[in-house]
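Incident log, support desk, overnight shift.

02:14 A customer reports that sequence design results differ from what the structure should imply. Their input is reproduced verbatim below. On-call engineer (initials T.W.) acknowledged and began investigating.
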């Protein structure tokens, strides 16, 4: 019996999932620890790996990641709050939101949280704050868009010519302007790029990292000392969703980086990564019960309780985010071609729109009512995402009633600033 089958049998036998609780997410913490260890084993000691909290914003997952030696990369005030709740300290957090408010920036600089500047208007705010907090221990850098192009999934490509993220390095005289910015500000000690994600080739990612490494070397040379001491090479490692095989591996990535940017593998710079999906995806699964089955137009349809509400990316972009499913009997035994008839199947979710499908037109061993379906590789960006107001401290919720000329607006949930929330902890 493999580990996943053991997990589903245990969930069924201990009534973790049943007729009442019909969809669960499961994280394998032993697998998570091995993945983190694999990441550290692939790189030398000057690399420090942070976890992109957006990939799995669950405190009970972040806590062991912290214990396993990872830092936290956050991209919103809500993620920062969750990271602090999970026990990450200021020196091990980096804040990357492209929409930081003045209060966000003040909180980070006051508390010594590292951050990456997205644009020149944000730089103006930080200039003023550095006068207010001249002893700040925040490691501050610019997010640079090397404009090297996108990967196979346009919506997750962050280094295109028109990307919304970072400082466009190739436009006009921007490169020289950025060098001048660093020369005038000795507190700019880091430089950051996020050149890859799912659908991006490792060679493309390495190209972007090589560009900012060369830029850091040029800035340090012109300044006459090593002002930039940290290279933040954000960007996730792509994940293989088509099988259990882990490819590319962290070692594959390290080998390409060592060949293309060997300076990273010396002690000259601290190098920070921001892995997310590659850390958690294969260590999590969704298990859901099949409520009903039927045939329609020659297609076998299995309706489950896991769909667009927790498998959002696949439901809305199935070609970009296809995922594997495996059927199990009520006793947790895997349905295979040897034990069940293989039929063309749609595995559907519970939401009331036609595209709410986990997979479509797939040959699968025939599922029956009350069976279970395991949805593989869903430890990141699936059941772990919380796109709701509880993760956003600035959001307030109001009700409104009355005629247009006499409206009554009542607050039912008060928004809070990030600093207010952190000061309560």
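02:41 Re-run completed on a clean worker. Output:
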């Amino acid at each position: 019996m493999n580990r996943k089958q053991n997990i589903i049998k245990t969930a069924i036998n201990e009534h973790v999932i049943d007729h009442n609780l019909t969809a669960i997410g499961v994280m394998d913490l032993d697998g998570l620890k091995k993945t983190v260890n694999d990441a550290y084993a692939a790189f030398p000691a000057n690399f420090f790996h942070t976890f992109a909290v957006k990939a799995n914003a669950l405190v009970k997952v972040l806590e062991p990641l912290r214990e396993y030696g990872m830092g936290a990369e956050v991209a919103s005030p809500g993620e920062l709050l969750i990271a602090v709740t999970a026990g990450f300290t200021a020196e091990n957090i980096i804040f990357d939101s492209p929409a930081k408010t003045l209060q966000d920036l003040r909180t980070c600089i006051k508390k010594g949280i590292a951050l990456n500047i997205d644009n020149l208007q944000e730089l103006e705010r930080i200039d003023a704050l550095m006068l207010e907090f001249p002893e700040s221990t925040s490691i501050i850098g610019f997010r640079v868009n090397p404009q090297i192009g996108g990967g196979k999934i346009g919506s997750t490509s962050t280094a295109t010519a028109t990307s919304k993220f970072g400082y466009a390095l190739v436009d006009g005289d921007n490169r020289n302007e950025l060098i001048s910015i660093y020369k005038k500000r000795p507190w700019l000690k880091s430089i950051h790029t996020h050149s890859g994600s799912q659908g991006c080739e490792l060679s493309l990612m390495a190209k972007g990292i090589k560009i900012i490494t060369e830029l850091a070397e040029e800035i340090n040379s012109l300044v006459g000392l090593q002002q930039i001491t940290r290279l933040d090479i954000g960007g996730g490692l792509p994940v293989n969703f088509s099988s259990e095989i882990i490819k590319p591996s962290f070692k594959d990535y390290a080998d390409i980086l060592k060949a293309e940017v060997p300076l990273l593998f010396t002690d000259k710079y601290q190098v920070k990564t921001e892995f997310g999906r590659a850390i958690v995806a294969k260590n999590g699964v969704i298990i859901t019960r099949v409520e009903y089955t039927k045939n329609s137009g020659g297609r076998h349809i299995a309706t489950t309780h896991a769909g667009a509400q927790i498998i959002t990316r696949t439901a809305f972009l199935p070609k970009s985010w296809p995922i594997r499913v495996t059927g199990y009997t009520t006793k947790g035994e895997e349905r295979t071609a040897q034990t069940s008839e293989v039929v063309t199947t749609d595995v559907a979710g519970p939401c009331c729109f036609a595209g709410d499908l986990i997979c479509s037109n797939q040959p699968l061993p025939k599922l029956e009512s009350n069976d279970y379906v395991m949805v593989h590789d869903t430890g990141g960006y699936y059941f772990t995402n919380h796109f709701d107001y509880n993760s956003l401290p600035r959001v307030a919720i109001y009700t409104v009633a009355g005629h247009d000329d006499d409206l009554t607006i009542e607050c039912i949930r008060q928004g809070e600033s990030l600093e207010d929330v952190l000061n309560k902890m």
